[in-house]
Structure formats: C-alpha cells, structure tokens
Inverse folding.
C-alpha cells in the first residue's frame, strides 16, 4: 500500500469519525414481510412515542445470534417491568435458509415479531457487515448500536435500555 | 473519483442533515486486508511449500455513502482493490473506482430508482441481484426500476438494465416484471394469508455465433403461491426458461444442443410453540442463467442472474464444511457415468423445545434440532455422442449426489454452563459434484461448552472430529474462544488432517486472532493458515487456495 493511499484512507476514517457526531440516523423507509406474509413499514409501524424498539439482525445459521435471542427471550418479560421496549428479530436469511426460520422460531418458543429481510435490503441500508447486530430505535431514530454478541452482552443491553 | 469530489458531494448533505430533521446522511466502510506469507510447512499435493503470490499485501475496501432528503435519496459505493483483490476473487476487480450509484424517489405508492439497484423476484430462482462481499458477488443491475403499489394488496415491479461485472457492465440487456397480489387482503381473511406472484425476466444477448439455432432473447416465466393458515404453511414456485444454447464448459456455447430449463419448488410446514417441522422439495433442470451465455460455470459467480442455493443445512462447525454440497442446475454429458441435467431432492427440518421441568428438559429446558437432506442427479435418457441430447423424467432419480443427516442438542445447565452436542453423517459424491473422482462417507462429532465467569466474561471451547473413508480421510479440530468482555474477544483454533494417506499432507491449519467491537465498529486481526477449498455463503461458493498469513478486517457504519 502506498503512502498516499494510506493517508487517504486515514483521512476518510477521520472524516467518518467526525461525522458520527452529526449524523442522526433514521430507520430506512422499507417494507418487510412478517412470518405470516403481512407487510409492515419500518417508517410507520414502529413509532409509538418514547417506546424502545430493539431490532436484532440474525440468521438461522448464526450461532451467536441464536444464543442472544434465546437469552433475551428468557428475560424479556422481567425487563418489561422496568422498560417499555419490544424486540424485533430481523432474519437476514436468503432463500436458501428462509424456510427454516418459521419452524426454528416456533421450535424455540420465541415471542418476537420476526421480519424477513430476504434480499438484505434492511441490512445493506445500515451497512451491516457481520451479524449479530442490534440497533435500538426511539422515536424513529437509531439511538444505540451493539455489534456482536458474547454471553452476557444482554446485561449491557438492559443497562443501555434503562438509560435511553 | 478524486477525494475533493467526494467532499463536494458530502458537503451539502452534511449541512442539510444538521439543519433539517428530514435530511440525513449515513454510510459504511469495510476493509479486508491480507498479508500472504511463505510457509514451508504447508505443502500442496506435489510436496511444494506454500509460496505467497505476487503482491503479497492485498486488500478489498468498500465505502458506501447514502443521503436522504424528504422522499429523495441517493447513494454511491466506492471500491478499492489495493494492491490487487484477495486470492481467487474475480480478476475483474482491479484498482479503485466508483462501483455503484443510485438516485431514488419513494412515496407510499411509488418507488423510482435510477442507477444501480438490487432486486429479487420470488425465491430468486429466475432473477436475483445482490451483493456478497465475502464471495466477491455484486451483480446489481444498472438501469431503472419502477415499483408501483396502487393498493395495499398489489405490488408491481419492473426493471430494465445491464448487469454489473467488475467495474463494467455485461454485454446484454435484462428486462423484468413482477406482480404480487395478497389475495387474503382482498377477501378479508383473518386467520389465513394467501398471495400469488407472477414474474417475467428476459435476457437479450446478441450472439456472435453464425446461423444460431437459438434466439438472442431468452425468456423466463415464473408463478408462485404462498399460503399460511393457522399453524400450517405452504409455498410453491414454478420457473421456466425458454430454449437456449446449452453451455457445458465455460466459454463453449453449443449450437447443437438447444434446451429449455425449469425449476419446481415446494415447501410445506407446520409449527406451533415449542415445535416446528418443515419440508422442501426441489427439482432443477438446466436452470443456470447468466447475463452472458459464455459466462456459465465461471468460478467467480460473475454475471450470474439467478440464485440457486443448495438446500442443505448450513453447518457452522469447521469440519462439517469440508464436504459442502453445491446445487447442480447444469447440463454435463461427459461419459456414461457422468451425465447431469439438473438435480432432484429435498430436505426436512425438525425443531423441538423440551420444556423446563420435564424429566428430559430438567430445570432449564433443552433444544433439539434435526435435519435431513438428500439430492440426486435428474434421471432420464442421455445421448452422449453425435448428436448429444437428453430427455428427463419428471420424477426421475439418477445417481446420488449428496446426503446429510444431522442432529443437534443444546442444553443450558445453569446460569454458568451451556453445552451443544452435534452429530452429522454425510455422503458426498465427489465425482458427480466436482467432476473429478471418488465418493466420501463421513461421520462428524462436535461438542461445545460455554462457561460464564462473570456477567460478560466467558470462554467457549469446541472439539470436533471427522471420520472419512476416502479423500483426505480423518480430521480433528479444536477451538477456544475467550470473551474478555462484550467488546474484546480472542480465539485459537486448529484443524489437523492427521488421517491423510500422504504424510506431507497431514497439515495443521492453525489460527489465532482477536476482535474488538464498539458500537458500529469492528476490528479483527488473524494470523494463521487458510484451508484450501470452498468458501460458501448462502449456498453459493467460491474456491480459495491454501494460504498462510496475516489478515486484518475493519468495518464500521456511521
């Protein structure tokens, strides 16, 4: 890599870091299907005032994603006593594995609203590279991002939700 | 595009985004760099050590910027392959340039896009454009798209354009139309959803062949239906591709074998809380579809127009990814023992949640998953010598390609311990799938345990073993992953091909690395050996050669 390329990259990097401070992200304006084939609008259907919407990007083949959703499923009723929130599990499965989503979700007894992001429009709009990836949305703005999951990350998430 | 041009582009939007709530700016950056090293300990089949390629330091970089103002949005993706793309990526990815761009106007009823866009009709068996950076796939269409939703239950889409290949576009025109109606909304059903879809896709490629026995324009038609009623669901799709020259080997268009293609997909399932079962059947005949005929079968998935995933379980253990099935939509008439016109088969999945408090489930419950898949070549009558031809039977089962039985048990013992146990049995017909020789039967056992030290500190250890009767024979593998906290993780892993018949091929593939995550940013560093073979994402694979070295990846969004 030549020096000028490196400098350019560094410059871009700094530029983005700077922009972090200014950009306040809205949810992209997309319509996605639920498991029952109903269409929901990201713009209009997740806009209850001050409610926290936790969108968790996962896939049926992603081990850590499933661990995260298993853990949250166990504790979410308890959490709801203190925080007004809802978890939406966004399945990024493409048509190879998408048909496994429904039996897996039911088999695990998850009580989330599941959205199907079959051609990954939602994932791409947020420039998500790796899953699991979780965003918290309040009043249509993305107010928190958690990328990756390790056992115990859900505790950090709860603390964060309480502070938002 | 020069740096200052970017800045000029960015400036008005950043100013806007601070002043008005309805304007926003966001984007992402991803960089994957690799430093290939010489490795005298890692031998190839001819006993030669691994030598780094020319330009040992390589990287692929993607910068995506998106601006939105009221109903308008625009975006641009810049890509840089410095110096050169990673090993065995599409050689058309050279240097750096603007790769894709678009402008879009969107309301409740209408959505207009000009520039590069991604689209999928139905299951994608006839048309899908998508991006998969790990595989080097980006087959976005450059042209225009109109999506019209006159009512809540009707969606019309039409697309037109040329397909991206490298930093250029393919030499053909693609047209497409899709209509979807949610009948259950029209009929005001409450517990049932029913939708129907119809697709047309045309590819117009002028051929250079003299007196072609096929038309420049190849037409594709598809119909689909999806039904959900309480706990039951069903979906089906039929695709048809009009007569076109068969390409058995990349770049060899056969003017004497002109055949149509088709696909049948049927999925049925039942699920309720704690239990789910799902079955899929698929039949493919001569169904590969490329924006240029001669591109068929190229090893980089370049100019691919449709998405034909292998319908098998995507196993996550390392040793379960050595013999990976790839869908077989193609025609090969090589000799009487190697004839293909497609595939036929299916898979079944069962998920079951053993309840807490039962004798089997214990205090914390237990989760079970079972999967079975089997794929055969399409049966029929094949004529190998002049003139070549074939005639398939609708439910004809030819030679077996692949079988996989697997079973997984996940058990949480208490708040500290969780274990997963997996057993996989595979049959892999290497001769038929890879067009080489041999058949392999494998048994794979994998066990993993996670232990939580504190709220966010944990360790995960995995042990794996693969027994194989042919090819590279037995393997053992182990991984340890330490999560220091929710931001920082380290890992160490090794795969050892101790059972190889050839002593200098009994290689260790060790890797050590770490990852740091904070908000939308992730940085990962890895040192080690890459096992040669297929890297697959979503059932589409890319071949990577053996290599040794250091890799750094960084991604962020803002």
């Amino acid at each position: 890599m030549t020096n000028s390329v490196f400098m350019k990259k560094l410059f871009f990097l700094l530029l983005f870091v700077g922009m972090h401070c200014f950009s306040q992200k809205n949810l992209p304006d997309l319509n996605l299907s639920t498991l029952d084939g109903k269409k929901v609008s990201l713009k209009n259907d997740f806009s209850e005032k001050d409610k926290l919407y936790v969108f968790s990007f996962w896939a049926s083949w992603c081990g850590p994603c499933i661990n995260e959703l298993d853990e949250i499923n166990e504790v979410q009723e308890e959490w709801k006593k203190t925080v007004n929130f809802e978890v939406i599990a966004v399945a990024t499965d493409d048509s190879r594995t998408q048909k496994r989503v429904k039996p897996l979700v039911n088999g695990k007894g998850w009580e989330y609203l599941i959205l199907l992001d079959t051609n990954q429009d939602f994932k791409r709009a947020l420039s998500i590279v790796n899953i699991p990836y979780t965003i918290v949305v309040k009043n249509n703005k993305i107010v928190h991002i958690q990328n990756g999951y390790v056992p115990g990350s859900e505790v950090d998430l709860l603390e964060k939700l309480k502070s938002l | 595009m020069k740096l200052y041009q970017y800045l000029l582009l960015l400036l008005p939007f950043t100013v806007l985004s601070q002043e008005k709530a309805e304007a926003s700016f966001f984007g992402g950056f991803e960089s994957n760099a690799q430093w290939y090293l010489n490795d005298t300990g890692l031998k190839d089949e001819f006993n030669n050590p691994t030598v780094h390629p020319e330009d040992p330091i390589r990287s692929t970089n993607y910068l995506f910027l998106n601006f939105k103002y009221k109903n308008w949005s625009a975006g641009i993706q810049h890509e840089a392959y410095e110096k050169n793309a990673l090993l065995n990526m599409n050689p058309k990815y050279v240097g750096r340039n603007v790769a894709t761009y678009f402008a879009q106007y969107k309301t409740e009823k209408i959505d207009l896009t000009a520039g590069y866009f991604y689209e999928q009709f139905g299951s994608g068996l006839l048309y899908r454009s998508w991006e998969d950076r790990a595989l080097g796939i980006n087959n976005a269409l450059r042209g225009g798209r109109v999506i019209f939703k006159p009512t809540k239950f009707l969606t019309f889409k039409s697309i037109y354009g040329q397909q991206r290949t490298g930093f250029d576009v393919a030499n053909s025109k693609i047209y497409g139309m899709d209509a979807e109606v949610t009948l259950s909304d029209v009929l005001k059903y409450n517990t049932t959803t029913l939708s129907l879809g119809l697709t047309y896709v045309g590819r117009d490629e002028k051929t250079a062949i003299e007196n072609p026995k096929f038309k420049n324009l190849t037409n594709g038609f598809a119909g689909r239906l999806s039904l959900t009623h309480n706990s039951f669901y069903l979906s089906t799709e039929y695709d048809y591709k009009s007569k076109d020259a068969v390409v058995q080997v990349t770049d060899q268009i056969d003017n004497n074998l002109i055949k149509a293609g088709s696909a049948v997909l049927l999925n049925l399932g039942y699920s309720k809380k704690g239990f789910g079962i799902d079955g899929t059947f698929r039949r493919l005949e001569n169904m590969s579809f490329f924006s240029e005929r001669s591109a068929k079968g190229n090893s980089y998935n370049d100019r691919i127009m449709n998405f034909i995933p292998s319908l098998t379980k995507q196993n996550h253990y390392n040793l379960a990814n050595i013999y990976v099935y790839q869908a077989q939509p193609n025609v090969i008439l090589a000799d009487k023992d190697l004839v293909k016109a497609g595939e036929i088969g299916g898979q079944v999945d069962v998920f079951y949640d053993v309840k807490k408090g039962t004798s089997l489930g214990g205090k914390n419950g237990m989760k079970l998953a079972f999967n079975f898949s089997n794929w055969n070549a399409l049966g029929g009558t094949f004529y190998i010598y002049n003139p070549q031809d074939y005639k398939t039977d609708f439910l004809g089962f030819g030679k077996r390609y692949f079988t996989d039985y697997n079973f997984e048990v996940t058990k949480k013992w208490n708040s500290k311990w969780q274990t997963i146990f997996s057993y996989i049995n595979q049959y892999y017909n290497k001769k038929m799938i890879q067009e080489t020789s041999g058949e392999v039967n494998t048994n794979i056992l994998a066990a993993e345990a996670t232990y939580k030290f504190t709220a966010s500190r944990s360790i995960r250890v995995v042990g794996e073993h693969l027994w194989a009767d042919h090819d590279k024979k037995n393997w053992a593998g182990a991984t340890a992953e330490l999560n220091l906290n929710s931001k920082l993780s380290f890992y160490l892993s090794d795969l050892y091909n101790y059972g190889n018949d050839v002593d200098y091929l009994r290689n260790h593939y060790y890797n050590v690395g770490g990852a740091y995550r904070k908000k939308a940013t992730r940085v990962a560093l890895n040192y080690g050996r890459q096992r040669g073979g297929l890297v697959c994402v979503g059932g589409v694979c890319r071949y990577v050669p053996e290599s040794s070295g250091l890799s750094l990846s960084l991604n962020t969004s803002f």
